[in-house]
Amino acid sequence: MSNVTAADLARALQDAGVAVGADTAPYALAGVEPLAVALPTTVEEVSAALAAASGFGAAVVPWGGGTRQGLGSPPSSYDLALDMRGLDRIVAHEPADLTVTVQAGCTVGALQAALKRSWQWLPLDPPLPGRATVGGTLAAGSAGPLGTGFGLPREMVIGMRAVLADGTVVKSGGNVVKNVTGFALDRLHVGGLGTLGVIAEATFKIVPTPLKEATVTAAFASAAAAADASAGVASIGLPMLSVELLNEAAWARATEGLSLRPEPISAAAVQPVNPEAPVEPAEERTWHLVARVGGRPAAVIRSVDAWAAACESHGATVGWVEDAESAALADRVADLGWHDGPPALAVRISVPLSQGVDAVTTLGDAAPAAALSVTRGVVRAAWAADALPDDRVAYLASLRERVAALGGTVVVESPTPIGGVDPWGPVGDAFEVMRGLKEQYDPQGVLNPGRFLGGL
Amino acid sequence: MATGVRGKVIVAGFIGADAPQEEDLYRCVHCGLCLNACPTYVETGLETESPRGRIALMKAVFEGRAGVEPGVVEHWDLCIQCRACEAACPSGVPYGRLIEQAQAQMRPRRRGLPGRFVAWLAYGHLLPSPGRMRAIAGLLRLYQRSGLRALVRATRVLRLVGPLAEAEASLPDLSQPAFRATGQVFPARGAVRHRVGLLSGCVMPLFHGPTMEAAVRVLTRNGCEVHVPASQGCCGSLNLHGGDMDGGRAMARRNIDAFLEAGVDVVISASAGCGATMKDSAHLFHDDPAYAAKAERFGAMTQDITEFLASLPVDPPRCEAEPLRVTYQDSCHLVHAQRISAAPRTLMAAVPGLELVEMAHSDRCCGAGGSFQLTQREMSGQLRTHKLEEAAETGAETIATANPGCMVQLSLGAREAGLQVRVCHVVDLLDEAYRREAAIPASQSAGR
Amino acid sequence: MDALVRELQRAVGSRYVLTRPQELLVYEYDGAVERALPGVVAVPGSAAQAAQVVGIARRHGVPVVPRGAGTGLSGGAIPVYGGVLMPMTRLNRVLEIDVAERMAIVEPGVVNIDISKAAEPYGLRYAPDPSSQKACTIGGNVAENAGGPHCLAYGVTTNHVMGMEIVLADGSLAWVGGRRHELPGYDLRGVLIGSEGTLAVTTKVAVRLQPLPEAVTTMLAIFQDEDDASNAVSAIVGAGIVPAAIEMMDRLTIQAVEPAIHAGYPPDAGAVLLVEVEGLSEPVAEESEEVQQVCYRNGATEVRVAADPTLRERLWAGRKTALGALGRLAPNYYLLDGVVPRTKILEALRRIREISGEYALPIANVFHAGDGNLHPCILFDERVGDQLRRSKEAGAAVLRTCIDLGGALSGEHGVGLEKQEYMDLCFSDADLDAMARLNPAFGAGDTFNPGKVFPTGASCVELLQHPAIARLGADAFV
Description:
The complex is a heterotrimer.
Chain A: H1 6-15, E1 36-38, H2 43-56, E2 60-63, E3 80-83, E4 90-94, E5 99-103, H3 108-116, E6 120-121, H4 134-140, H5 147-150, E7 157-163, E8 169-173, H6 186-189, E9 198-205, E10 207-208, E11 212-220, H7 223-234, E12 240-247, H8 248-255, H9 267-270, E13 287-295, H10 297-313, E14 317-322, H11 323-335, E15 345-350, H12 356-361, E16 369-373, E17 378-383, H13 392-405, E18 409-413, H14 431-441
Parallel strand pairs in A: 1-3, 2-3
Antiparallel strand pairs in A: 4-5, 5-9, 6-10, 7-8, 7-9, 11-13, 11-14, 12-13, 12-16, 15-17, 15-18, 16-17
Helix pairs in contact in A: 7-10, 8-11
Chain B: E1 2-5, E2 8-11, H1 22-25, H2 39-44, H3 51-62, H4 73-77, H5 84-88, H6 95-106, H7 113-126, H8 130-145, H9 148-155, H10 163-169, E3 185-186, E4 194-198, H11 203-207, H12 209-221, E5 224-227, H13 237-241, H14 245-262, E6 266-269, H15 272-279, H16 281-284, H17 292-301, E7 302-304, H18 305-311, E8 324-328, H19 332-335, H20 342-349, E9 354-356, H21 372-375, H22 377-393, E10 398-401, H23 404-417, E11 422-425, H24 426-436
Parallel strand pairs in B: 4-5, 4-6, 6-7, 8-9, 8-10, 10-11
Antiparallel strand pairs in B: 1-2, 3-5
Helix pairs in contact in B: 3-6, 12-24, 18-20, 22-23
Chain C: H1 2-12, E1 17-18, H2 21-25, E2 40-42, H3 47-60, E3 64-67, E4 84-87, E5 94-98, E6 103-106, H4 112-119, E7 124-125, H5 138-144, H6 151-154, E8 161-167, E9 173-177, H7 188-192, E10 201-208, E11 210-211, E12 215-223, H8 226-238, E13 245-250, H9 251-261, E14 271-279, H10 281-297, E15 300-306, H11 309-320, H12 322-326, E16 332-335, H13 345-358, E17 363-367, E18 376-380, H14 387-404, H15 423-426, H16 429-436, H17 438-441, H18 460-463, H19 467-472
Parallel strand pairs in C: 2-4, 3-4
Antiparallel strand pairs in C: 1-2, 5-6, 6-10, 7-11, 8-9, 8-10, 12-14, 12-15, 13-14, 13-17, 16-18, 17-18
Helix pairs in contact in C: 1-3, 8-10, 8-13, 9-11, 13-14
């Protein structure tokens, strides 16, 4: 632990040409405020700030929009908040190359807005995209619902500039979509929670915006029926963007204030509906499948038909929305639990995908909002402050036990640490290598100390 | 040039006119695309048992980095010469030619009396002489029929001589009548559309007499006048594969003369191995002024029986459909050496009721490879076992192929595995369908 | 050495330990030009045996060089420091195809195309398809982060490998990544893929499978020159179409391929583009129509369209075997793998033409145009004059061109021996130092495939003249 004072740190930063923030309160983590806040605006300033901090052995927490600061343990020491939001430029966007280079502090929302002008997008959908930065989203590493169609954020990164703990700026990859020159160091930083280096700039391969999109919504009596319905459709190669299975609470939050058309899209799918027949009470429909497709209009129409037919044949009531409404619903689904800011408690469960239904149902009634990414076996669940489980420690321990039996892991995300709960759970194979990486890239333990898996 | 290897002085470099040629060797850019096509590589996972590895060893000898010596020749020996690698090679490396030439280098230097004796007997005295072949076959047939076999097997006396027991077990069933039609001309049914010469050869008429008769019937049924020249003999391919280039050429000359004198339009082989060698005659005689032109003409006239029939195309058998589940093993010398894979399938598709179920890796060698069955028993056996496993997975009751060596190997494999499966030639299936046609009574068979 | 051999024989069986000098000869090469003899070859028959081999080599202080099928094109499998060469070719079983999870677990010696063959009955396939896919192994693909024509739409090996079982330098086995989509911890899987066998040896691979497309259409667009074809590539991508593959072959390549494969490429064409679109039948029909229009607008003289599998395969056959077919044009070739942004293809090809003229050596181009992944192929005859030296110099000029245009040294072949001296064109000392720190983090030391990827300080041209042979000395030639 460093004995640096706030004044020393601030002076060193200013000497290095880095602006220092006046207010440390917004950067508090687990009730601890840093000694100082650095506000760099260039990669060079990030480098200078880290060099200055590591000169004191001061502990640094990189900050983006703060939407995911609940991830990981509280830092074991905390001297400097490194606010990256001053690096918010789009460095290069070459539409015909389908690549974009962006600074880490740019918000995902701002980047999407810029790309949209060229009818392109980066298929990343963190919660609160207006606040979430590119760097923070990569450091957190997990995918939103779009992971179904496009994989994890790491799949989109083709190049990166990261700043190591001592201020060294390191480049890996490049500007081209296919590149095996040198080792893929960017893979360490995506999902590395800023513990091996601070992401300063990333280059992505991007994709054309789908010409059309639509979302099929289907209400099922059981999660298993929904999973069965999607298993049949998922295997035929439709242009899926996301397939999420929401519980009632998640569905209610996602659709609040949105008007969703109830009628199915195609005549074929309408067939079983008899206007004279009594409508089954909605209360019994507790699981909502939200399947989003995007692509050429003909493909979208056919996909909607296929989804609607599959869901109806499994006893679901089917509706659909398209284009702007579909996108709006998708945003809500991606935000799950984050609507007004980070939730009081959230978990991510990852299981082999055949265990997905068991994983989402094993949350029990304790989860107000939960969604299963059906083709990925990833469950997101979030609790509002007023609806937390009575005994969080016992609940999470028992959840972890049940998920372990399904062959999966639970990552707990909470802005306030929960005593006795390791947010990451047990370390897996090859942890010694992970420890070795931390020793190699941050031997002083300057970056986000103690926050990552196994206390790294 | 002499090079020391482990203290032993050996002769480096290739010798003689039939040595692998530089221009052929260095066509290989060692890209490795041949590897997975090679049955011995797939079986062992060893580069030493791959086409690329064998060529590397040839290059090493050529460059004086290795000799024609143990550690080199045993890997050439283990090549079945199926030539699957040739079909996979994008650089056009003439591997079949290279390995034959490399093996020819081994011949004069081959150590070991038994090996030399077998080569002397087979290449020098049996294969060139149809008469001696018939005599040997007669003795073996007698052995199998007389009860002597039962006695030998019961007493297990051959166990005392090790490999002899295995050799005895792998003998084909000689209970079928031999094909003795040499010297005859079979008239076409109906108008004569083609005058064809049929290779009788060495092993085929002895081991697979009924197939030869079937070939004659199918050809005549499709308007061919079939000539079986009396002066023909073995095509020489076994000698050539075994590295006896001069002996092989002498036998090839005899057949070239026999068929060219017969005045036929097409020379047909029902044995894919023979056909492949015959088609390549031009190369065999490229520096023989007396035979170069004749060999080229002979090669161009040669067609495999399936290739010829499919090109006619065959008159579809007009018979009742009889359900039959068949799987087809591509004979290496048909699919790789002659690049024929569609023709046999086309013929089988013409048979009413026949359902062709493809096995996995149908174009991978069954391990027969002419004398390979005898000289590389272990590898041959492994390949045979895997082949029969894959054939059995299709649930077929019949395995069809297009080469006598494959038929012997597959029959043996089926017997070993205890499978109730018949092994036959593609033309057997076609013939059976024709014989079910009301118009052709079974008694009116050819060659009897 | 004798003790090492004895221990290896005990570990994998004496049949699978090769020590005779003649047999070592066949393991001195891979698909590229570099050569070096291993000290001994040990071929394990199981993951446990592979781990034992690593442990034995470590104890004896000799390196282990893992090898797949030896089809690599950057010298990755060449044992420059001798030691134990460990071909993984006997580990060639598809262990599991999990249809519900859409994944397969395979051994590293499984040939790339055999994964797709095994998955095909379930309507699935493994997407990355290097041109050597009929021979190359998945273990080698993982080591090199291999690509292939269809990586344009689907990504490269790293995007399709969920996890691996590896042997670390201490001889222990561990899984990185695995069956699940999200695992806490650093993405060790991600850094190992493409680390060219220098950090660990792969003993099992969990790959993602994807549904076979409902419809596939392949188009062969014929152009009078490369400029038109290059413009068409940018125009296709610019139109918002992401085909499964866009491949280009230039005149020289067409001349080599046609006699070998008889794919029906017109011999007088200046360049051909092979464009494949796949997916649901409706969008495939629309996209293939649009691709044809874009090609014609950019000067295509003819566009042939094949939806039938046999005809499509024929159009592809020429592309997939092009490299080997170039062997027909010259006794030697030096194949490069540079990448440029796809909007810079036209300029890159122009500069390559200039370089060809300057060094008086023909350069054929057959490449993944959709990704900007060039494969300039410098044709030469090492027996003639200074052609070998000129070919290396021309290669260096081409690579510099790629970097100047904002590209990279290698798109899919890896750095290996071939490009290690060019790494400083792309990366600073600090970048390379950061990459080098992976080695101690994995505790690898000199155990795995030493002498690769990082610059050694020799001048490029000097090093590329068979460095391995020079280092081994005259005794290496038996």
